[in-house]
Amino acid sequence: MTRISIQRHYAAMQPLLTLGQEIRARGHLDAKLVELVLMRCSQINGCAFCLDMHSKDARAAGETEQRLYLLPAWRETRLFSESEQAALAFAEELTELPSHESVSDALYAQLRQHLDEAAVIDLTLLVGLINSWNRLNIAVRTEGGHYKPAAH
């Protein structure tokens, strides 16, 4: 059962929506990578609404079902590029923040082999953004399963 209707408070969500649109519009991150990161963070946080949304958006953007099925075990497959692996590792560490030592120099160096500074900033903003959405949807118990993707 949903506790609060997010739609009723849509104006309050505008800064989050705008940030997401701006990250995508800048084009520093591949559209499929964006959806993979959004899905992986949502898997970690257990946000059903965001998983529903981003799995459908990923498929609409051309992502394969096989990669989506194996996303939780991305380290154990060769289906993800080195660039995607670096971004997913970065997203996981920022989401979990096991310690203040998260995002080691080695991980950051690996990420920088694939992404320039602007892309790293956008990736960091994207991870922060989806963690905010996850927490919001979990707090108000937004139900997953009814999202319809926009036409891509």
UniProtKB/TrEMBL annotation:
Origin: domain of life: Bacteria
InterPro entries recorded: AhpD-like, AhpD_core, CMD-like
Gene3D superfamilies in the cross-refs: AhpD-like (1.20.1290.10)
All copies of domain Carboxymuconolactone decarboxylase-like, residue ranges: 13-93
Name of the protein: Carboxymuconolactone decarboxylase family protein
